[in-house]
């Protein structure tokens, strides 16, 4: 190098590589790195499965939410409410397939129903003996404006079909949805703009959830006769298990009527919070209700149902709207759904949600007891019944989430990386007590980071 050559001093603010310059790790980040090393050492077979799958699948993944750092566990099998990894470890399952696994992993009644259905063959390409029975069960259960129902393969499809029905019924185009709402992969609104490249290209308008004043202003600014539907969750799931305020949801029901739009209540997840769905607790009658998750007995399913005059648009005898799907009425799902819905009777639903409330109340009490000195604790819960979230706040909230996730795994408990917890009917008081003790241990060990 020429000794006379002077290299420029590149300051971080004008250095294109500045974002790669990492500040020193905090104590919490150092803890997380140590936990992730222990995790990798404990789970070599999961790592091997991950690396092999990377060759054929981007991120070794076909469902984004299942990714975890440094790599996800590979599950070998489940029994009752326990998951087993390929590495030989067992975990109490407090995720329950993001609420779809409400029956646990080995319900004998559902298994028998599936085996019986399979004994008669599958993939008929025709009407079968199960679909009408499941439809009758669901219509009689949810009632409340659900005169008729149709099946599809996921909650996502159910919401897409509900939107299409609203546009077809009203002849209008705009759909009011809410920031933080999630109605399926192509109907996701984590931010104020609906212009996410993976979203379905409907004419969405977004309003803040639980904000009547802002929603009124947005609706009043719309062109006349342009609103086809209001699409909302009674409790935002992916948005953090945020319950809708009663006055807000009743306002939306009224606004839909006033604007001659349809009120679509997404109960894909929340329909398990009461025997007749969260709508029965809220005292709201939707024009269309969407369902999914648990109603298929653990198999893939979606459903949308509503007022007769809306649903009859799908009657092939009049041909106004079409609705296709090779597996909409597959015998495995239909048979499992019948069995599952019978299992989830009023008593079972009530007990499940009461158990979830007890666990969440215990966690809240533990947080208050151990972190009560903090003006704003960095750990809190949100949710209803058997569905809730443990959430962290503050500048290191993402690190806290990751530390919490790994802490639970080290103590034999499996939840979502984002802190989402869903109960299943195999959970007992003993499971709740075990989880509670682990929570107390976490709070004691990480108290300084949480206040």
Automatic annotation (TrEMBL):
Its cofactor is pyridoxal 5'-phosphate. It comes from Microthyrium microscopicum. Keywords: Pyridoxal phosphate. The keyword NAD does not apply. InterPro entries: Aminotrans_3, PyrdxlP-dep_Trfase, PyrdxlP-dep_Trfase_major, PyrdxlP-dep_Trfase_small. The lineage of its organism: Eukaryota, Fungi, Dikarya, Ascomycota, Pezizomycotina. The keyword Endoplasmic reticulum does not apply. GO terms for molecular function: pyridoxal phosphate binding; transaminase activity. It comes from the Eukaryota. This is Putative glutamate-1-semialdehyde 2,1-aminomutase. Transmembrane segments: none annotated. It holds the Pfam family Aminotran_3. Belongs to the class-III pyridoxal-phosphate-dependent aminotransferase family. Gene3D superfamilies: Aspartate Aminotransferase, domain 1 (3.90.1150.10), Type I PLP-dependent aspartate aminotransferase-like (Major domain) (3.40.640.10).
């Amino acid at each position: 190098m020429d000794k006379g050559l002077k290299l420029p001093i590149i300051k971080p603010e004008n250095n294109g590589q500045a974002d790669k310059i990492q500040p020193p790790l905090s104590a919490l980040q150092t803890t997380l790195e140590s936990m992730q090393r222990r995790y990798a050492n404990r789970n070599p077979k999961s790592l091997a499965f991950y690396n092999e799958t990377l060759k054929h699948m981007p991120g070794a993944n076909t469902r984004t939410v299942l990714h975890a750092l440094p790599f996800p566990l590979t599950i070998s099998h489940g029994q009752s409410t326990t998951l087993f990894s390929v590495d030989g470890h067992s975990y109490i399952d407090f995720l329950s397939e993001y609420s779809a696994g409400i029956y646990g992993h080995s319900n004998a009644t559902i298994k028998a129903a599936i085996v019986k259905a399979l004994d008669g063959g599958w993939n008929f390409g025709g009407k079968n003996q199960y679909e009408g029975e499941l439809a009758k069960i669901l219509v009689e259960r949810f009632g409340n404006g659900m005169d008729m129902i149709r099946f599809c393969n996921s909650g996502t499809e159910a919401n897409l079909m509900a939107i299409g029905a609203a546009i077809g019924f009203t002849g209008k185009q705009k759909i009011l949805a809410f920031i933080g709402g999630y109605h399926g992969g192509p109907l996701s609104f984590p931010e104020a703009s609906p212009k996410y490249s993976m979203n379905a290209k409907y004419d969405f308008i977004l309003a803040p959830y639980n904000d009547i004043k802002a929603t009124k202003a947005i609706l009043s600014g719309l062109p006349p006769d342009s609103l086809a539907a209001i699409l909302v969750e009674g409790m935002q799931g992916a948005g953090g298990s945020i319950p809708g305020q009663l006055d807000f949801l009743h306002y939306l029901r009224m606004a839909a009527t006033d604007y001659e739009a349809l009120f679509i209540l997404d109960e894909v997840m929340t329909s398990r919070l009461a025997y007749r769905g969260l709508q029965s607790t809220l005292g709201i009658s939707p024009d269309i209700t969407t369902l999914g998750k648990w109603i298929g007995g653990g198999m893939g399913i979606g459903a949308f149902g509503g007022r007769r005059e809306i649903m009859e648009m799908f009657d092939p005898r009049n041909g106004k709207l079409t609705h296709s799907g090779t597996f909409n009425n597959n015998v495995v799902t239909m048979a499992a759904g019948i069995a599952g819905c019978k299992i989830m009777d009023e008593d079972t639903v009530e007990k499940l949600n009461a158990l979830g409330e007890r666990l969440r109340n215990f966690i809240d009490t533990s947080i208050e007891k151990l972190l009560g000195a903090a003006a704003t604790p960095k750990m809190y819960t949100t949710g209803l019944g058997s569905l809730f979230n443990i959430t962290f706040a503050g500048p290191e909230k993402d690190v806290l989430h990751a530390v919490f996730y790994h802490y639970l795994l080290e103590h034999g408990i499996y939840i979502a990386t984002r802190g989402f917890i869903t109960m299943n009917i195999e959970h007992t008081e003993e499971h709740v007590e075990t989880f509670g003790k682990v929570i107390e241990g976490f709070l004691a060990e990480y108290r300084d980071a949480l206040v």
